[in-house]
Amino acid sequence: MAPSATIEATLPASYAQKTIFFSGTKLHLKPEVKEIPQENGGKEELPKAIKLNNRFAVSAMKAVPKLWKNPSSFAMNALQSPWYTTMFGLQSTLFHSSIDFFRHDLGYKYLVVPVTTSSISSPMGLGSDSQPVSLELAGLQTYLADSQQFVLEYALRLEDGLPGSYYVGTSCRGEDPDSTHLNQFCHVECELLGGLADGVAVANRYVVAMTQAMLREHKTKIEVYAGTTSHLTQLLDLYRKHNNSFPMVTLEEVLAMPEITDDMWQYAVEGEPRWGRSLTRKGERMLIEKFGGACWLTEMDHLSVPFYQAYTDGTKRKGQCADFLLGLGEVIGCGNRHVSAEQALEALEHHEVDPAEYKWYTDMRQLKELNTTGWGIGTERFLCWVMQHDDVRDIQLLPRLKGVACAP
C-alpha cells in the first residue's frame, strides 16, 4: 500500500475530530451508518467502512471501547458508540425471545418480584458462591435479591399443576467485579416441575432458542465484532449431534482426566479439603474446548454448593445439580430441590446455616411437597459468548460496579 493511501471507517461521533496514523497510512474516522437488509426482511444498522479488506479499517471497526473505566464520561461516549447500540439490540432481542420461549413454548407464568428479600439464596454458609448485599430500608435490615429462585419455588405452589414460573431482571451480588463477574447483572431464571434431567432439557432448549434468535436478528452485526458466527452454528450442530442435548460430565470424571492440572481446580474453602472441590475458570475452559464448545458439569461436591440443592443419594456427598459451561465458563446454574421439609432442614444443618432465617422455606415444604428444579442464566456472560468477547463489563448499557458511581 502506498504511504498516502486513505482508509475511511466508522467509529463513534466522539472520534470524528481525531486522525490516526498507521505506518504512514492515514485513517479518517467518519460517524456514518448504513442500513443493510437482513435475511428476515428487517433492517439493521451496521457501521460503514470503505475498503474493508484493509486490516487497519477492520481493526478500528471492531474495537470495543472500555467506557466503564471512565464512569464520569461513560454515558455521553456510550451514546455515540456503535458497540453499545449493538448491545442494546442484542439485549432487547434476548429479553423478548425469553418471554416468547417461556410463555408460548412452555406455558410458564411470569412472576413479578420485589427487589428486596429477607432470605438470600446464597447464604453466608458452606457452599455460598457469592456475597449478599445488605441494606437498611425504613429501619429494617434486608437484602437486595441475589436471585429470585426461592420466590419462583413459592410461585409454583400458588397454582396446582403449573408447569413452571419464570422471571427476567436484575440480581445483585457483593463480590468484586472482574471480567466474568458483575455486581448487578441481568438474570433469567425459571423453576419447573420435575427432576434435574427435566431442568437440563429446558435449559438446553432455551440456549438453542436464544442462539437461533441471535443468528436470525443480528447475524451481520455479530460478524462485525466477532468476525464470524460459526460458533453459533457449531453450538447448534453440537446439540443435534448429541440427540438434542449437550455433553455431560461429572466432577469426579473431570478430576480424573489426564488434562487436569493443579490450576484447573481448587478447594471450595482454601486449605480445607473436607468442604469439597470446584473447578477454576481455567478448568471450565478446558472442558469447553474438550467437548467442542459447550458441556454440562454435574454432581458437584455438596458442601461446595448451596444447601438447597438436593442430594444425589443417602451419602450426602454429591449435589443433584449441574453447570452449563460456554464461552467464559459457567453461564447457567441448574439444580434439583429438596422435596420435604425434613430434607431441607438436614441440608441447612449440614451447611451450618441458621434454619430460623429459612423457616418459611421449610414450612412451605411442610404444606406442599413438590419435586422442582430451577436454573438461572447470566445474560451478560451469554452475550459475551455471542460476541466472542472476553469481558462482561463491556456488555452492560448501564454499569453498576462495586464502589463506582456511574450516571445515569
UniProtKB/TrEMBL annotation:
InterPro entries, alphabetically? Aa-tRNA-synt_II, aa-tRNA-synth_II, aa-tRNA-synth_II/BPL/LPL
* Domain Aminoacyl-transfer RNA synthetases class-II family profile, chain residue ranges per copy: 100-399
Q: Which GO terms describe its biological process?
A: asparaginyl-tRNA aminoacylation
User: What protein does this entry describe?
Assistant: Asparaginyl-tRNA synthetase-1
Keyword annotations for this protein, in alphabetical order, are:
Aminoacyl-tRNA synthetase, ATP-binding, Ligase, Nucleotide-binding, Protein biosynthesis
Q: Which superkingdom is the protein from? A: Eukaryota
Keyword set includes Nucleotide-binding: yes
Which Pfam family is one of those matched by this entry? Answer: tRNA-synt_2
